[in-house]
Amino acid sequence: QVQLQESGPDLVKPSQTLSLTCTVSGGSITATYLTWGWVRQPPGKGLEWMGVIAYDGGTNYSPSLKSRTFISRDTAKNQFSLQLSSVTPEDTAVYYCARGTSWSGVNGMDSWGKGTLVTVSS
Prior knowledge:
Elements: E1 3-7, E2 11-12, E3 18-25, E4 35-41, E5 48-54, E6 59-61, E7 69-74, E8 79-84, E9 93-100, E10 109-112, E11 116-120
Parallel strand pairs: 2-11
Antiparallel strand pairs: 1-3, 3-8, 4-5, 4-9, 5-6, 7-8, 9-10, 9-11
């Protein structure tokens, strides 16, 4: 059974870059046709899909976040990472990593990490 675990700072200052890593166990991030993504949920709001990296290294990002988002991977460590630049307090959210089979959206995601709260504040 695949397991995902987010890690990274829980406090980031405005204008800095938020960086999170998802460590995957019980499955390979290079397994064919799978995608590995990031989703966030601001306090009191719904889920927001941010982007994915596919088994072959291809990426797709939410149009609203594309200019600030970068997703990468380390296949040797079976990890993938999120970088969100120029953060503001509006980027405060619980950030989840997840596995799926779709190129966009949360509907195809079937395994999720527990999530990590990242607060943007000076």
